[in-house]
Specification:
Helices cover about 40% and strands about 20% of the residues. The protein is of the alpha+beta class. The chain has one domain. Strands 3-2-1-4 form a 4-stranded mixed beta sheet.
Length: about 140
Amino acid sequence: MALADDLDRIARAAGAHALPGEEVTAVLAVEPAPGERLYLCAFGSSAGVDSWLVLDGDGSPVTNRKRVRDAASIAALCEVVEESVDGAEPPTEPRLASLAYLDSIGPTTENGDLAAAVQSAVPAVEELTKNVESNYKLDLSR
């Protein structure tokens, strides 16, 4: 199954968790470990309230705090580092956020320094991770 098909399937599964007046606004595919796929789902409402949910490959909600943090961190890290790529065009196809993806774009970052790009991304990663945890749709376990 293509990634775009997976994202559509997961968006439908996430929609079942939307509250009245809320809709799924984004679904990001994340691979925190080889062979493990999670989906970071963002929800928005007309009142401006955002919430989050991570679903596994079966479309089931994830409540393990570490897995949720890993998914949010890797998604944010890939987004921010991708923005630092010299002359990068926005992706036209969905992509899988993973550590392998970061390695693949590393040499093309400004000055070719992946470590510097990752370091500069840390504040944004921490901010998103905190937002996801604070506005998570379910209680998180330790």
